[in-house]
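ok so I'm stuck.
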Amino acid sequence: MNILIVDGQGGRLGRKLLESIREACPKAHLMAVGTNSIATQNMLTSNCADQLATGENALIVACRTAQIIVGPFGIATADALLGEISPAMANAVSSSPAYRVLIPMNLCNTYIAGVVKGSASILEDAVLHVRHLMEEK
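replied:
not stuck anymore, here's the structure
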């Protein structure tokens, strides 16, 4: 199973996702794409990714082969993450045939009803869902 983890800004969520998914799904092939080099570097330090890349084109290409895409909700929204998600990136995530597991966050002028800011249970739920998807296939 090819799982793509996408994150931007500081890459802390991406790093946590990589670590948690690697633990929950040790046989998965984990690709990580940072929207900037700092995010990619932070995800690299997890030592959990099988492949890492940075930037718009890397994300577009990775979305073509991913079976599951995991990241903050903003990766499917143009101009999110303080402008780090270009319309082309959001389109690649949104139009990918991959199953998407998006982490809701109330940031960047977007309010997602029902989301408690900083809730660790949201991240845990996302990882459990990815594990469930792995078990189905």
